[in-house]
Recover the amino acids of this structure.
């Protein structure tokens, strides 16, 4: 049966609520969406028949002691499958995931250089390997924003600025969606994580560059303003180091991976005592992994570089907490795969929360970094476009 536009809107609204708050009862869906209980029951009945959602049992929480037990609904895994990919200066990644974010296939290809033709070839190979799952759409997480008209990436990075995605559409017949990689990760956090507090949060991503995305009332904030989220270009040190954007003292020049690598290369060139010289044979081989190894070995120069980076990052996070209403701040970086740096960050964050009472302290969460976080996040983009907005 073909749904009217209004019926589709109600269906998407209900399904979105189950994704973000499930397991959830029909009555709670009605309360939180404003949709009548009868309409919620009718729409969820149809979605159960489509095997898109299912009943998971009674609500046994202490709040549901009296009266008729509420039946909880949740998303049914393996209803559909999606392909996600992330473009990065370090690697390209691909994964096939189901509609609940469970990965079935994945591939990460480390890079020295990348061409459009190589990427399209590898993407087509991965699509071919996933045919038995009948993927419904492809999501691509970008190191910048997508220029829909010209099919290019909007960024100040010279390489990505000239990376042409037009050819991709000539060989791929599935629906393809593009979005900034951090915004994709924010969508994934809301749709895939089993946390009923996923409508208001900040996602702070630190990699070669830095970006901050804000989920506000269940929606990505400021979708049409490309400057919002460019956290790496807020000034933290007036008259400080020159940034690639032309300003001085940007956070990116103190806390980004590219800055940390650059300063570690200078250390490599000028110090005979750095452990980096035992870990790599040339400055060009220095990576975040080798820097973290030197940090754990007690390299004083590397410790100074990383401690400074963490201090600037923590100041920025605390400033965000005082400006933006959020239930939590999620921090995502390969740097914080190192427990010592996590401890340092937490210590630094706690030094700057004296304005808040114990009951109002911000919830800071360190999200484990993996090479496939971005490609999995791109499948969340597919779900948001294909299942929740189609």
């Amino acid at each position: 049966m073909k749904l009217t536009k209004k019926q589709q809107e109600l269906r998407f609204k209900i399904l979105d609520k189950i994704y973000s708050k499930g397991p959830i009862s029909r009555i709670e869906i009605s309360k939180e969406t404003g949709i009548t209980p009868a309409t919620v029951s009718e729409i969820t009945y149809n979605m159960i028949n489509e095997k898109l959602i299912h009943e998971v049992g009674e609500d046994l929480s202490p709040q549901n002691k009296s009266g008729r037990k509420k039946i909880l609904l949740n998303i049914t895994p393996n209803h559909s499958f999606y392909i996600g990919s992330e473009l990065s200066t370090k690697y390209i990644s691909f994964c096939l995931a189901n509609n609940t974010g469970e990965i079935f296939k994945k591939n990460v290809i480390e890079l020295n250089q990348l061409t459009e033709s190589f990427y399209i070839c590898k993407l087509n190979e991965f699509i071919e390997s996933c045919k038995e799952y009948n993927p419904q759409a492809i999501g691509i997480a970008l190191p910048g924003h997508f220029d829909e008209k010209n099919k290019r990436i909007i960024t100040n990075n010279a390489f990505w600025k000239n990376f042409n995605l037009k050819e991709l559409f000539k060989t791929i017949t599935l629906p393809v969606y593009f979005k900034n990689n951090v915004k994709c990760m924010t969508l994934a956090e809301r749709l895939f994580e089993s946390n009923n507090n996923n409508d208001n949060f900040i996602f702070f991503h630190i990699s070669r560059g830095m970006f901050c995305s804000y989920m506000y009332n269940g929606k990505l904030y400021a979708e049409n303003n490309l400057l919002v989220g460019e956290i790496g270009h807020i000034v933290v040190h007036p008259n400080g180091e020159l940034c690639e954007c032309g300003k001085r003292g940007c956070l990116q020049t103190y806390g980004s991976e590219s800055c940390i690598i650059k300063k570690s290369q200078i250390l490599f060139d000028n110090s005979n005592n750095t452990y980096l010289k035992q870990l790599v044979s040339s400055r060009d081989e220095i990576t975040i992994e080798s820097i973290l190894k030197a940090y754990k070995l007690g390299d004083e120069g590397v410790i100074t570089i990383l401690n400074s980076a963490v201090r600037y990052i923590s100041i920025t996070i605390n400033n965000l907490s005082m400006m933006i209403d959020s239930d939590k701040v999620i921090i995502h970086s390969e740097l914080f795969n190192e427990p010592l740096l996590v401890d340092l960050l937490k210590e630094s964050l706690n030094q700057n929360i004296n304005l808040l009472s114990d009951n109002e302290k911000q919830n800071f969460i360190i999200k484990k970094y993996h090479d496939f976080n971005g490609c999995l996040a791109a499948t969340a983009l597919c779900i948001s476009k294909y299942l929740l907005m189609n």
About this structure: The chain has a mean pLDDT of 91. The first helix runs from residue 5 to 21. The domain at 81-191+373-386 is CATH 3.30.420.40 (Nucleotidyltransferase; domain 5).
